[in-house]
Amino acid sequence: MAATSDSLGGCHDRAGGSPWWVQLGYPSFEAGPDHLPRPGQVVRHYRRLKRRPDGKRWTQADLARALGVTERYVNLMEHHDEGFDSFSRRRFLAEILAIPPVLLGLAELPGLGKQTTPLQAPAVISRPAIDVEQVARRLSALNRKGDLSTAGPELPLVEATLRELYEALPFARGDQPYVKRLLVGYHTLAGSVLRDEQQPQRALEHLNKAVGWANSLQQETLLAFALYRRMTALIEFGQVERALQDEQRVRRLLPRLPADLRVALLLRGALAQARTGEAQRQPGRVLALLDEAAAWLGEALAGSGDDRYHLPLSRERFQIDRAAVLLALNWPRDALDSLPTRQLSGMTRANVYAELLAAEAYARLGEYEQAAALGLEAIPVARTIRSQVNLDRARRLTERLAASPFGSAPEVARLRLLLNQPGRGRGRAL
């Protein structure tokens, strides 16, 4: 509950002289509005008590970096009490500077309420007959959008198209195999979007259906692709044993698969294996899978260019996926050496992923400042493309940095602020 002017003013009136904060043992700040101490003086006092990793006290420049504002703005805050009209900013300042909340008009730090905004129902496509060619073109366009950034905003359209396909299936006759292939494609797309948004139950429902339809068609390449997408989600959701079951199933298909799909599956298998305790002790099996994938990479890149499954295959993407495996083995220096030296053109989500892998590797090596800098670059982009999976990676990075000797640095406070901003996009500007 926030402190009110009545409750705090009463404390002052009963004493008759000293303000209530002096009576409670706090410094003799000048009185501000609403029977509270001047917030700028409070912030300046506690900012000077804050210590950086090198033992020096926080400067106005340090606080400016943490808040993402200019040093002049902090000067105005401290000397002219500007910028304290935001409740969330007061709460953040109280947290990072260890200010007793009551001094900023907060009796206690409020908890985060549960999200109550109802999900909007997806739009409905209503046409008397299905145009399978148009639906296929739509799937290709949505997959390209997902590869470059995110297809998240199009999820209602994806789910509406799935309903349309299911309604058309009994009447498709000779086109039934084609419609079933489209069902596999749309279910894998929906599952991948929901994986990126960290919705495990819904994602796996779609991916299980994709595997089921692919299995019914008895097309090994299509089945391997559906299993690849499901393995990716299972690994992300921490269900490594189930991912390994899919990996064993895929191993029987590998000799008959095209090179690009073979490389993708070998990399996923290596990542699943790397997440096991056995691999931490004996990484030979994981390294063998990486070597096998590398051996097929040249043929995969020299293929016909038939990207029917929209596999994110390039030499740079191979390096990113290899780095993820090495990091899972807790080999951070090798992971950094594996990462590409340049960003992938137009591949926003992959670039954010690579930045966060590098940040995690630097953090494990004790190079905390570099880790924080990469995290600060990645978070706004991940938020813009609504990539919850990457925001969660950034959150784990921030927790690691906060628990390190670098934990009191303003960069770590800034990371926490960026992660806690509400809504989509960049959040509220400070």
UniProtKB/TrEMBL annotation:
InterPro entries xref list: Lambda_DNA-bd_dom_sf, TPR-like_helical_dom_sf
MF annotations from Gene Ontology: DNA binding
Protein name, UniProt field: HTH cro/C1-type domain-containing protein
Protein's organism: Thermogemmatispora argillosa
The organism's place on the tree of life at top rank: Bacteria
